[in-house]
Design a protein that fits this description.
The chain is an alpha/beta fold and about 400 residues long. The protein has two domains: about 5-185 and about 370-400, Glycogen Phosphorylase B (Rossmann fold); about 195-360, 3-Layer(aba) Sandwich (Rossmann fold). It has helices spanning about 15-30, 45, 50-65, 65-80, 85-90, 95-105, 115-130, 160-170, 185-190, 195-205, 225-230, 250-265, 280-285, 295-305, 315-325, 335-350, 350-360, 370-385, 390-400; strands at about 5-10, 35-40, 110-115, 135-140, 155-160, 175-180, 210-215, 240-245, 270-275, 290, 310, 330-335. The protein has a six-stranded parallel β-sheet with strand order 2-1-3-4-5-6, with helices on both faces. Strands 9-8-7-10-11-12 form a six-stranded parallel β-sheet, sandwiched between helices. Strand 3 (about 110-115), helix 7 (about 115-130) and strand 4 (about 135-140) form a beta-alpha-beta unit. The radius of gyration is 22 Å and the shape is globular. The relative contact order is 0.12.
Length: about 400
């Protein structure tokens, strides 16, 4: 007997899109073992449009480096939001044609996506080829819904009341919206116990040094290099774990700095990593996180009670994340790099300040992990041909049917 096919797709534009998609795919299999055929797809690569995938990745990287340009583009998107879903069909006709034809070939029983490009293409494919399958989308930006999300969709899942308000502003119908907790990997809900000393030894870290984890997301684009340049001025023994993501240029520069620090017998040590599948072990052995305000990155650190300093926001979604958690006194924000070394030094010299931050984090509402609920919404929609909207049904899904 053929298993119902759940097609889960994302794009290359940041781990914020791929991580929840993959986490939800894993959770469906955990909850309903061997019941469904589950396909996860880096969409444009699978379509055969690798050049386009690299192009949108480069464009995203450019926007990460140039926040003012990002702000201008988002402003235009807010003004002309009714036309933004037509971006690909108007400007990239070949990509559009290949994509809608590919979805016809796949012809899933349900399609789930975490990016507005693939959302629009799925809707176009269903309409163009007269297909019949539900389409569920997750907007992964915690406190905002971008105007690019297509309003023709069946279901748009969002992660906060602010995102609900934002979606309403852009014309999404109330009965097609649902608030869900942020989708996190299972390891953040049930962290694996680690041997801290063994990991420190493996990564060349010292037991008595203050350990700072730095990351600027999957693309590795932010202010890590400049931040490290300030932190190494501190005289206290510090170990820096630098996660460079896909930024090979940053990786090579930090390797040179690492070599220089070793040769100069500095009190600062750096362990340099490229893209990693899981940041959890690094969070668990660190005393502080410094990096870009990616919604998932910040929430993951806070889930494991790691104090956070945000040093950079690339867009309005990241800015709202920083503002929300700063207002809750759960994180510190320091975009003035000339002040960051004194801020870090104060935390090292005054452990009570660090403990106060951890205490604040323990009182935060860090949301439930939404993967269980989202997995059940997907399966319910597939099996019952209806979207869970009733609050009683949502509660049942959360506590187990």
């Amino acid at each position: 007997m053929k298993k119902p096919h759940i097609y889960i797709t994302y794009t290359n534009t940041g781990a914020g899109h791929s991580t929840p998609a993959l986490a939800i795919a894993d959770r469906i299999e955990d909850l309903y073992p061997n019941k469904f055929q589950i396909t996860t797809s880096n969409f444009f690569d699978d379509v055969g449009e690798k050049k386009f995938n690299r192009r949108i990745e480069k464009q995203w990287n450019y926007l990460l480096k140039h926040p003012l340009t990002t702000k201008m583009i988002l402003f235009m998107g807010h003004v002309f939001y009714k036309w933004t879903p037509r971006y690909i069909p108007l400007l990239f006709k070949r990509v559009w044609k290949n994509s809608v034809n590919y979805i016809q070939e796949v012809h899933p029983d349900l399609l789930f996506t975490t990016h507005f490009f693939t959302h629009t293409l799925a809707l176009d494919a269903r309409e163009h080829h007269q297909l019949d399958f539900p389409i569920i989308a997750l907007n992964p930006d915690t406190f905002e819904t971008f105007p690019q999300w297509d309003r023709r969709g069946d279901v748009l899942l969002v992660c906060s009341d602010l995102a609900i308000q934002s979606a309403r502003k852009y014309g999404h119908e109330e009965d097609k919206l649902m608030r869900v907790p942020q989708a996190l990997r299972k390891e953040f809900e049930e962290p694996v116990l680690i041997d801290k000393k063994s990991l420190q030894k493996e990564y060349g870290l010292r037991e008595d040094a203050f350990t700072i984890l730095m990351s600027d997301g999957g693309q590795g684009i932010g202010l890590m290099l400049q931040t490290i340049g300030q932190v190494i001025k501190i005289s206290a023994p510090i170990d820096i774990i630098a996660i460079c993501g896909r930024n090979e240029k940053l990786y090579r520069k930090l390797q040179k700095i690492k070599k220089h620090l070793i040769e100069s017998e500095s009190n600062i040590k750096i362990a340099v990593f490229g893209f990693v599948d899981s940041i959890t072990p690094f969070i668990q052995i660190s005393d502080l996180f410094i990096g870009k305000s990616g919604p998932a990155s910040v929430l993951e650190c806070l889930k494991l009670r790691l104090p956070v300093i945000v040093n950079f926001t690339a867009n309005s979604a990241e800015k709202k994340t920083a503002e929300f958690f700063t207002s809750q006194k759960g994180i510190l924000s320091c975009t003035n790099l000339f002040k960051i070394s004194s801020l870090v030094e104060n935390l090292i010299l005054c452990p009570a300040q660090l403990e106060e931050l951890k205490e604040n984090i323990s009182h935060l509402n860090l949301f439930q992990n939404g993967t269980d609920l989202i997995a059940k919404v997907i399966v319910h929609t597939l099996e019952k041909s209806e979207f869970i909207k009733d609050e009683d049904m949502i509660l049942k899904a959360l506590i187990g049917e």
